[in-house]
Design goal:
It is a single chain. The chain has eleven helices and ten strands. It has 388 residues and is of the alpha/beta class. The strands form three sheets. The chain has a six-stranded mixed beta sheet with strand order 6-5-2-1-7-8, with helices on both faces. It has a two-stranded antiparallel sheet with strand order 3-4. A hairpin with a 4-residue loop joins strand 9 and strand 10. The longest helix is centred in the N-terminal third of the chain and has 27 residues.
Length: 388
């Protein structure tokens, strides 16, 4: 297999307490990048509304970069004036700060751990000595397209083990948010691949035409072969096979510089001026593999990545304090759950690790849905009512 090398980009960002990071200098500090990022955010929202022909609900953003937007089949006369994004949200007594749609399947993890406790638990998790991610992944049956049995490589300290979502459960959960948008580099593309596999329940689920190329099934979609990248389903609308029966919209947008603070402020700004509120999540950098080339240690080694993740966490805490339900940005911490995992090139991970990332994401969204619902934030536009 052709060897893949990481980029030469060093991870840098301003200190949260510096003048550069100060909210008072937002317009000056972000400049053109702010405008560019805002442009593609607005473009995605317009496209989502066009696809679903529905009002926009809660908008969840996972950066480096993943965005989940929620929308549902229309009953425009019901809540159109209340759900329209604006700088002046309706009075608090009319609607909760964030909204989600109804679900057919019950919560799978909500009530077992709060969203903040869950993130802390993931941050402190350690791969078990015999964890599956420590060794090179071997496809159980190369002739089958069915997803193989899956188990986590670690246990969560302080929280119960995460639920393993089936395709039906994952489709129902994402459908309650309406759609999912990812923006980023290869790290994010691999999460997108894993999510599509789970949503379709197939190892070739990330391909535009399922079954087109057997080399691009399962682990083959994570080794960065350019031949497989050409088959990637970046926009679910491009497939003749509707994703989750057409109930959700999935979209991946490439970005060569995903690990940059220029993506943080536009999403925080969007949360501040939109109603319903934005749920925004930053996807932390995972740990580099033990086989990272010596020439890259100075710019992308363990200490560099740890320092970068810590500074991003501080910056987000400073710029966007508060709860997830109120629109505060949160961080999904991948470092510990990948520290010690097998990496084929010292930078990227395969099927097992990316399945773990997506299953943790689904559990986190399940908690988020439950916390929003507990505040009366479930809106059924088809039936025309709010539910508590």
């Amino acid at each position: 297999m052709e060897e893949r090398r990481p980029s030469h980009t060093a991870f840098t960002l301003p200190d949260p307490g510096s003048r550069e990071a100060s909210p008072k200098r937002t317009r000056e500090s972000w400049g053109g990048d702010h405008a560019v990022a805002s442009s593609w955010l607005s473009s995605f929202l317009r496209r989502l509304l066009k696809v679903h022909r529905a009002a926009l609900f809660t908008f969840v953003a996972i950066t480096a970069f993943l965005l989940v937007a929620t929308s549902h089949p229309p009953t425009r006369h019901l809540l159109a004036h209340q759900l329209h994004s604006s700088s002046s949200p309706p009075p608090a007594h009319l609607l909760p700060a964030t909204l989600v749609g109804p679900r057919k399947t019950p919560n799978q993890y909500y009530g077992k751990c709060s969203s903040d406790a869950f993130l802390t638990s993931v941050r402190n998790a350690v791969i078990a000595p015999d964890g599956a991610s420590r060794r090179e992944y071997e496809t159980p049956d190369a002739t089958s397209v069915n997803l193989p049995a899956f188990n986590f490589s670690f246990t969560l300290p302080g929280c119960p083990q995460p639920h393993i979502f089936t395709s039906e459960e994952a489709c129902d959960l994402i459908s309650s948010f309406g759609g999912i948008f990812m923006r980023g580099d290869s790290f994010v593309r691999h999460v997108h691949n894993a999510l599509l596999m789970i949503l379709r329940g197939r190892t070739d689920g990330a391909m535009i035409e399922q079954g087109h190329n057997s080399r691009c099934r399962g682990d083959g979609m994570f080794d960065d072969r350019r031949e497989c990248r050409s088959y990637l389903l970046e926009d679910s609308q491009d497939s003749n096979e509707p994703l989750c029966d057409g109930d959700i919209y999935a979209f991946y947008l490439r970005a060569s510089m995903a690990h940059s603070v220029k993506f943080i402020q536009p999403v925080i700004d969007l949360a501040a001026r939109s109603y319903p509120g934005v749920l925004s999540i930053w996807s932390g950098l995972h740990a580099p593999g033990s086989n990272l080339g010596e020439e890259y240690v100075e710019s992308q080694g363990r200490e560099v990545v740890l320092t970068y993740n810590e500074k991003v966490q501080r910056l987000i805490n400073f710029r966007s304090p508060g709860s997830l339900q109120d629109g505060a940005m949160k961080v999904l911490p991948w470092f510990n759950i990948t520290s010690g995992a097998y990496s084929y090139d010292g930078t990227h991970y395969g099927f097992q690790v990316n399945q773990e990332k997506v299953q943790l994401l689904l559990n986190f969204l399940d908690i988020a849905w439950g916390e929003i619902a507990s505040r009366g934030g479930v809106v059924d536009l088809q039936r025309g009512y709010l539910t508590g």
